[in-house]
């Protein structure tokens, strides 16, 4: 047997020699590696903790416990918090139950709130009745409810910022795939702006603070009209309404084919071409080219039928070219995107307001809109549209015109004039609107009517002003209405 084989044999008591001792430097390196690994694990745990969305469980419990102990404290927090401001779903459900009871005039103590949650099959999901009593037990005093609510609201804003930041990060990555940088920056600004706007609320004002601006407005009206109003271009209509005012929701309604879209475009021409005010039309019915053709026909007195048929004469082309140079810079914006939702319209209107200023919004027309959600009825859906349009008018401080169809009521009556009750699909339109213009054209029913060539703008509702009827002349071959000749 060789010496090598001898060394490898375990029969002769051979023992492997111990490993040589490591140097101090190697030992230090191993300890340093372990230390770094331990620090990494600790930092990783901390990072995981910090990466939870901002929230304060104790503050949320403090708000809810205060409400259950002293239901009157709902007045201290209702303007500060929405249910979505709570981080934990159970807390959201409890707070929403308290709000629902408050809206019904019921003070919700622990027993009543538990009954409400039980009726909604949510009691067990929030932890049962014992959890409600735990909330009450852990609150030192309901007097601090407002301070708890401020903490919850602040954490909610931070969560919204985190979510907005996440979307901004995604936009940054999308920007590397062909998006224009300006668009990315604009959308990112809007995300953060939306968080700020969500916390801005209209506060009450003292009478003394409002007297001076009111007198200023009265003086402005006395001296020839308010600069902020949007003139319609119809003399008698402007006298009755003092123009279209910021924050107003206006309905233009008529039966199909009477000219309601044409009247809305007349308002836009008056605002933007003749008075330099910015306007936008969101059209779900006509394409952009069709809208521009109508605007050009009305401005140049070239028949719309000639434009469509391609039979314009040379003199008409010259007139068109001349007028184009005069109106091409008018601040009119046209959006003919298909399947527009109310949320998209509100978002686009906000962007226009920020970038270009905005004085008038037109929606053509209401019955073509869809929310894209499951709803119980079309009436409910239109009611929601109506509410959102009114909120948009107040938020942007511009008049919002919504074009709407009438039902078949006028056709079944001897007097064919439309009435306010003929508004189609929703009584909310009548309720939310500040003004309702019903357009009536006698020769749409009878071409031989003695008033052929005339139309009536019936002011069926005017919040804070007179109602009445304004006769105008129609020139639909030029796609426009005009003031009646005087004398």
From TrEMBL:
<keyword id="KW-0547">Nucleotide-binding</keyword>
<dbReference type="InterPro" id="IPR036185">
    <property type="entry name" value="DNA_heli_DnaB-like_N_sf"/>
</dbReference>
<keyword id="KW-0067">ATP-binding</keyword>
<feature type="compositionally biased region" description="Basic and acidic residues">
    <location>
        <begin position="27"/>
        <end position="49"/>
    </location>
</feature>
<dbReference type="Pfam" id="PF00772">
    <property type="entry name" value="DnaB"/>
</dbReference>
<dbReference type="GO" id="GO:0003678">
    <property type="term" value="F:DNA helicase activity"/>
</dbReference>
<dbReference type="Pfam" id="PF03796">
    <property type="entry name" value="DnaB_C"/>
</dbReference>
<dbReference type="InterPro" id="IPR007694">
    <property type="entry name" value="DNA_helicase_DnaB-like_C"/>
</dbReference>
<keyword id="KW-0238">DNA-binding</keyword>
<keyword id="KW-0378">Hydrolase</keyword>
<keyword id="KW-0413">Isomerase</keyword>
<comment type="similarity">
    <text>Belongs to the helicase family. DnaB subfamily.</text>
</comment>
<feature type="region of interest" description="Disordered">
    <location>
        <begin position="1"/>
        <end position="49"/>
    </location>
</feature>
<keyword id="KW-0235">DNA replication</keyword>
<dbReference type="InterPro" id="IPR016136">
    <property type="entry name" value="DNA_helicase_N/primase_C"/>
</dbReference>
<dbReference type="GO" id="GO:0016787">
    <property type="term" value="F:hydrolase activity"/>
</dbReference>
<protein>
    <recommendedName>
        <fullName>Replicative DNA helicase</fullName>
        <ecNumber>5.6.2.3</ecNumber>
    </recommendedName>
</protein>
<dbReference type="InterPro" id="IPR007692">
    <property type="entry name" value="DNA_helicase_DnaB"/>
</dbReference>
<dbReference type="InterPro" id="IPR003593">
    <property type="entry name" value="AAA+_ATPase"/>
</dbReference>
<feature type="domain" description="SF4 helicase">
    <location>
        <begin position="223"/>
        <end position="487"/>
    </location>
</feature>
<comment type="function">
    <text>The main replicative DNA helicase, it participates in initiation and elongation during chromosome replication. Travels ahead of the DNA replisome, separating dsDNA into templates for DNA synthesis. A processive ATP-dependent 5'-3' DNA helicase it has DNA-dependent ATPase activity.</text>
</comment>
<dbReference type="InterPro" id="IPR007693">
    <property type="entry name" value="DNA_helicase_DnaB-like_N"/>
</dbReference>
<dbReference type="InterPro" id="IPR027417">
    <property type="entry name" value="P-loop_NTPase"/>
</dbReference>
<keyword id="KW-0639">Primosome</keyword>
<keyword id="KW-0347">Helicase</keyword>
